[in-house]
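protein under study:
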Amino acid sequence: MSPFLIGLGGRPWRTGSGYHGLTCVFWSPSRQQFLSWTDARPDSLAGFEPRARWQQPAPWTGLATPAAATGCRLALTHAHVSPDSRISGVESTTSAATTLGSDELMSLLPVRSSWREVAPTRIKGLSDPADPMSQWTVLRPAQGLPARWDSASQVLRYPLLDDDGEVLVLEVSWSRLQAHLIGRLEALGENLPAGALVVARIVRRGGYLTGEPLSLVLPGRAIRPVDALDFDDGPERRPSALVEGLLKSSTPDRPVPDTDEPPPVVPVPLADLRALIEAEAQRGCAGVAPGVIHHRISRVHRSLRDVGMSIFADPAPAVSPSEALLRSLFLVQQVEQALLRRIRRILA
């Protein structure tokens, strides 16, 4: 176990499969690695609430609550770390937390100022190790732009610019668990403090990189330099009209993925096929020259057959482009689920 960890905040989550929990994220300077601790329950089990867990007793003796680790130097003894970077919550582990000032804390973090440096390691096959914590990073934005709410997809998007003007968009899907976070990002907008760091998980969606925010590290603070966005109150006191409207509406919650959930463990050609299908569907099939979409699908199907997935036959010429895309998407979904079931059995 590393000599000490730095607490970087926590986030509540709920999956579509019926579990919810709280995950806290830590940085180990000696390991140069992000680690996590998670407490989870089936959502059918009464008496557990992910947001309330933040202020309830911590898993280790010597630490009052999970919240108390945020922004602190945390020394753990007799701690165990799993191969996928999870810290166990066994009773034999003891802890001691000391406060860190923002200058010292920032000097210990793996800060990235260019978005070209933040792409997560891409898994190319079932033999590659799945380390979900490798997706975490610490960003130093040059500027934040106003957050925008997408009512069609029920997602808040908060763009961050780096020194070269490149954009990385933080995304938060609507969920009552994330109502506080949405309100914080909406109010933050262009008021991101100069020199502030953003702790986020970087994921790849539809061929693009996006971020899932966890916390801010604020400069010039002797105490409490880490602002846990899911739980802490910011300087803004005005309620969010957007959040209040969503809470009063019948808008259904979207699942909030666990931060420890492994990334999709699929071959690159399969991910490329999904990206192709999504791009063609967004453009639409009307007005496309005959055979063009069939040719694009066939090219990627061929690469999948080359790695042993013979199920991906070329689309029949008589099938319409839209139906060819739907059939191809169905095959992608079936194979992805089969591969994920297999890798979970391997990791179990």
